[in-house]
Design brief:
Length: 203
């Protein structure tokens, strides 16, 4: 009973109110361990399975409710694929895409997402990728929810040839290569690939 109460409290705190019962129902159905994890730079969430132990899902605690919900369902999709196929499927292959899209369908409405996020999410769900970061419209919409400072923008929002500051260094914005932008550090003239959804300071 304590585990059920704790899980529901976590979901009530971190996902949109209209999605709490749905997310809780998935946890009850599959009985996995769940952790709202401290922030990690390299991942938003993960799924782990080890023989003899319950599967474990983690999602970064600092995500906004919409990103938390998407990431939670992303990881539950991994669990569903694991339960059905064990490890006979690629991590983000067709089976995972189908399961993830199916899990998203019940929540893709304006009860759970603002239209600014829902519109790119509907597009993304048609062919989901390993990371939402590779779908720039969705990532930009999710980043805009956080909007840490008015003088911060995503690299993809900086015009080519314009200056921006990242990690105390000044860069010139170059061309977009899929999900990364070629940028030149002004002082050294070295070229760097910067994630298109990275937050930078306008100059």
């Amino acid at each position: 009973m304590e585990a059920k109460i704790a899980m529901r409290k976590i979901l009530e705190k971190h996902v949109p109110a209209a999605a709490v019962s749905y997310c809780y129902g998935l946890w009850e159905r599959y009985q996995f361990d769940f952790v709202a994890s401290k922030p990690r730079r390299t991942r938003l969430g993960d799924f782990r399975a080890q023989l003899g132990y319950r599967e474990r899902i983690t999602v970064n605690v600092n995500l906004n409710p919409y990103n938390f919900l998407i990431t939670y369902l992303h990881e539950v999709a991994h669990l569903e694929v694991y339960r059905k196929y064990k490890r006979r499927q690629p991590p983000h292959g067709k089976a995972w895409k189908n399961h993830f899209s199916g899990l998203l369908i019940p929540v893709m409405n304006e009860n759970n997402f603002p239209l600014s996020v829902l519109t790119p999410l509907l597009k993304y769900a048609q062919n989901p990728t390993a990371s939402t970061g590779t779908h720039l419209p969705l990532m930009q919409a999710l980043k805009n929810i956080d909007a840490p400072q008015t003088d911060m923008v995503m690299v993809s929002q900086v015009s080519e040839g314009q200056l921006f500051r990242l990690n105390q260094k000044v860069f010139v914005r170059g061309t977009l290569r899929r999900t990364r932008v070629v940028c030149v550090e002004e002082a050294s003239q070295k070229k760097y690939l910067v994630a298109a959804h990275a937050w930078v300071e306008k100059i």
